[in-house]
Amino acid sequence: MTIEQREALDQEGPDDSQHRRRLQPEERRAEIFDAALAVFSELGYDRATLNDVVERIGVSKGCLYHHFDSKEQLLLELMRVRLGCTFEESDEVPASNESREAALRARLDAIWQHFQRPGQLDLMTLAINEFPKIPEAGRVLFEEVVTRKRENLRQALDRGNQCGAASPEDIQMAALMIPWMIMGVALGVHQFRRIDPLKLSPEQVGKAVTNMILNGIGGVCAEEPDEA
Predict the structure, then answer these.
(1) Are residues 66 and 31 in contact, defined by beta-carbon separation less than 8 angstroms?
(2) Burial of 34 (0-12, 13-18, 19+ CB in 10 A)
(3) What does the DSSP assignment read for 93-110?
(4) How far is the C-alpha of 221 from the C-alpha of 196, rounded, in Å?
(5) Is 167 helix (H, G, I), strand (E, B) or coil?
(6) Around Cβ 55, how many Cβ atoms within 10 Å?
(7) Per-residue pLDDT tens digits for 4-41
(8) With the C-alpha atoms ordered 106, 145, 47, 10, is the resulting torsion angle positive or negative?
(9) Is the dihedral of CA 99, 100, 103, 109 positive or negative?
(10) Residue 21 φ/ψ region, left for φ over 0, alpha for ψ in the -120 to 50 degree band, beta for the rest
(11) In Å, how far from its chain's centre is CA 125?
(12) Would you tell me which of 13, 92, 105, 206 could form a disulfide with 61, CB atoms 3.0–4.6 Å apart?
């Protein structure tokens, strides 16, 4: 986009030249991300326009185009930044003297806490609804975020498995499924929190999810002897 096109676009939208807050570029991007998530969630990605986003913030369209060239790029960057950067805690390398269970518990708790952050479940719902329509955006995000997180979890699961109690294939499958399992529980609790008679706190559910993944549900019954 040329400078002349950007200047022309800057004339569109609200006349806020006297009152526009001056923000650092990263602060402005964060503000745009917040507005885009709200607008895309409320209207749906297809119906929403960049005008809806700038009206939510109260800036000109040209201001938005200084950061993002299209609605698709805005969606992709929103997903990349908000889904990727806020997972950093779960990427930390465990201390060498930490037990395998303690390291896994900390990592699983970090995944659960990620989904409790404001806007994260709205973001996941948006991704589920919109990525089938924008496969390229989904592919980029998968390669840049999901595969890295999966490998980090695989390494954590493989730690302390020298005896080979779990096969490499089992560990790989666990690394694939565990984040989706945690996300599914978080989405379910979020969607039905107002009508579910079990008024459990996020802390209670998160602890139960971690315990179940690490220990199973327990209580395996002994097989009854065959009748003579």
Answers:
(1) no
(2) middle
(3) PPPTTS-HHHHHHHHHHH
(4) 30
(5) coil
(6) 15
(7) 444 344 444 444 443 355 677 788 889 999 999 999 98
(8) positive
(9) negative
(10) beta
(11) 9
(12) 13
Give residue-wise pLDDT tens across range 72-94. 889 888 888 887 654 555 555 55
Average pLDDT over the chain, rounded to whole?
79
Checking 147-155 for CB contacts under 8 A at 24+ apart, the result is 148/91, 149/87, 149/90, 149/91, 149/179, 150/175, 150/176, 150/179, 151/175, 152/90, 152/91, 153/90, 153/107, 153/178, 153/179
The torsion angles phi and psi of 223, rounded to 5 degrees, stand at -70, 135
CA angle (180 as vertex; 73, 124 as ends), nearest 5: 35
Q: Identify the CA nearest to 35 among candidates 115, 122, 134.
A: 122
Question: Who contacts 177 (Cβ-Cβ below 8 Å, separation ≥6)?
Answer: none
CB 186 within 8 Å of CB 112: yes
Q: Which two tokens stand for residue 6?
A: 């950007």
* One-letter amino acid of 212: M
Main-chain dihedrals φ then ψ at residue 58, nearest 5 degrees: 90, 35
Q: What is the C-alpha radius of gyration for the chain, rounded to an integer number of angstroms?
A: 22
3-state per-residue secondary structure call for 173-225: HHHHHHHHHHHHHHHHHHHHCCCCCCCCCHHHHHHHHHHHHHHCCCCCCCCCC
Task: Quote the DSSP letter at residue 153.
Answer: H
Q: Which two tokens stand for residue 25?
A: 């570029």
Burial 126-163 (b: 16+ CB within 10 A, else e): bbeebbeebeebbeebeeebeeebbebbbebbbeeeee
Q: Measuring CA to CA, which residue among 227, 28, 226, 207 is closest to residue 112? A: 207
